[in-house]
């Protein structure tokens, strides 16, 4: 079990790593807002580059944000944290659309089996409208899997 100080260091490293080593996060403008063991909250401010031909947020943006939130939630439970988890399967149901504002995605680990981690995720608009819901299967690449 990690001490509070060790947990805080792991959180800070995940946030730094996502900012420094994930050009895709930077391209879309995704930010890690909050982390707890097995949970994440990410945000993305919508701009013109995120819109489709109808002027709505492109479903690929919603999928990417959902994938990121599911993965970051899993990273909080893996020794070494960031870059030690990969998505191997994901299903997302698109429930509504939006044209702008801030998107929020919440990821939560709902199960683990061996090196597999299962995360649920939801994406909401700034107005609180649920835009997408998904389930991801991720695999831990870390030795020992769990932090000691």
Describe this structure as you would to a colleague:
With 148 residues, the chain is of the alpha+beta class. The chain is 28% helix and 37% strand. It has a six-stranded antiparallel sheet with strand order 1-2-4-5-6-3. Strand 4 and strand 5 form a beta hairpin. It is globular. 34% of the residues are buried.
Q: Top keywords for this entry?
A:
3 helices; six-stranded antiparallel beta sheet; alpha+beta; 148 residues; single chain
N to C succession of SSEs:
HHEEHEEEE
Largest sheet strand order: 1-2-4-5-6-3
Shape annotation: globular
Q: pLDDT under 50 segments (min length 5)? A: none
Taken as a percent bin, the fraction of beta residues is 35-45%
Report, as a whole number of angstroms, the end-to-end distance: 5 Å
